[in-house]
Amino acid sequence: MNKLYINGDWVESTSNEIITVLNPATEEVIGEVPKGTKEDVDRAVDGAFTAQKKWAKESGATRAEVARKIGEAIERDKEEWIRLLVQEQGKTMAYARGEIDKSIQYCHYMAGFGLRMEGDTLPSERENEMLLVLKKPIGVVGGIVPWNFPVFVMLRKVIPPLVAGCSVVIKPSTETPLTAYKFAELVHELGLAPGLFQLVPGSGSEVGNAIAAHEKVSLVTMTGSFPAGSKVMEAAATNVKKVNLELGGKAPVIVTQNADIDEAVEHIVQSRIVNTGQVCTNAERVYVQESVIDTFNEKMADRMKAVKYGDPLKDSSVEMGPLISQDQLDDVVSAVQEAKDEGATIVVGGQAVTDRKGFFFEPTVITNAKHEMKIMTEEIFGPVLPITSYETLDQVIDWANDSEYGLSSSIFTNDYNEMMRAINELNFGEVYVNREHDEAIHGYHAGWRKSGVGGADGKYGFEDYLATTVAYLQYDRNKQ
């Protein structure tokens, strides 16, 4: 597709440049899309601004029905969505199916908020007066979508705003724009009012910055790295607009001597290799109590050695696919080498896979890591699991909290007191107990510190797309 989707039509970009899309498992070119410009963003935002005014006046029931129809249309073509997602992003077939199923569920769940834009009434200090707290759509929403969940996270930035009465301008990742184009085709087929969904692919430095800085965009929501989020926040500040940012993570996992070690190993492996470790909530650093660390390390090494990886389109049974790009592969290689140079031990994997095409890295276990090493403090975003030991729960909770990030965390223990201390003392947006990292759509996915501002999912996520008006209503004035 060599056009942009603006105002309900396919239009030429003002740029002659293109973005080439590769299958990360084979390095084959699978598509091209135009590289948008600031001028394209201006066209898209202007159209979205006009369309939103009319859309805001539609009933909540009408807006909810659009969300339900989108979910039904994705379900109708589910197998096509799954295959494209695997081809474009490198997920396993099972995980791609999970993303699409969750996306369908999300559309139907969020549709329920069409009649749940809940305000409030308050008493006044004056006689014959009532205060009405009204919730209204915030306006035009700019959405910047990452490559690791190009369908689900895009819908996180499209469905709630549409249900709330907003219009949306989306910039997909340059690595994975094809699923966004398939979505544009879907809304075009459904006859969504022109301007409510606009699609402008391009670079973050030009298209992303133009969306974030645009005076007619009321909220910009972005999922990505902390440096990218900082730039979005800086651009948004030029017009003092609301931001919703989900950024990086360095999720700590605590395994106590009271844990079921076999259960912990399996859940941690799944949390580390899912999407090839390219998830901001993935298990990024593991702290194991000294009395059980030898047993844990042995079992973890055996399990990671057994992880089957490869091209998900050729073998649907693989547990892990490729990394997204050569740049990402180079970053993971560098991180592992630096850990080795600092004295950590590579007990499983540790190498880029060179006997095939694609951006593959071996499932890797690193032991003898120290809390202060970069492998324990900086996000890896690859299938690499660093492990260190600790003595007491006080010590490990301090270590877990000693991070720039605060998105996700977890503990494995069968001791109720340890569970409750972790839940109350871990300063993270999410604490998982005896399970893998995977948030619920009716929860609230949000981070602390450099992991972001605002959040997504559930009623609290929906409320981010609403603005508040307080009306002071005087009545029966003749009796004053």
Automatic annotation (TrEMBL):
Pfam families annotated for this entry?
A: Aldedh
InterPro entries, from UniProt?
Ald_DH/histidinol_DH, Ald_DH_C, Ald_DH_CS_GLU, Ald_DH_N, Aldehyde_DH_dom
Keywords assigned by UniProt? Oxidoreductase
According to the UniProt entry, its GO molecular function terms are: glycolaldehyde dehydrogenase (NAD+) activity; lactaldehyde dehydrogenase (NAD+) activity
Write down the PROSITE patterns for this protein, in alphabetical order: ALDEHYDE_DEHYDR_GLU (PS00687)
Q: Which EC number(s) does the record attach to this protein? A: 1.2.1.21, 1.2.1.22
* Residues in Aldehyde dehydrogenase domain copies: 10-468
The record's annotation in SUPFAM superfamilies points to:
ALDH-like
Catalytic site residues? 246
Q: From what superkingdom does this record's organism come? A: Bacteria
Protein family (similarity comment): Belongs to the aldehyde dehydrogenase family.
What name is this protein filed under? Answer: Lactaldehyde dehydrogenase/glycolaldehyde dehydrogenase
The taxonomy runs: Bacteria, Bacillati, Bacillota, Bacilli, Bacillales
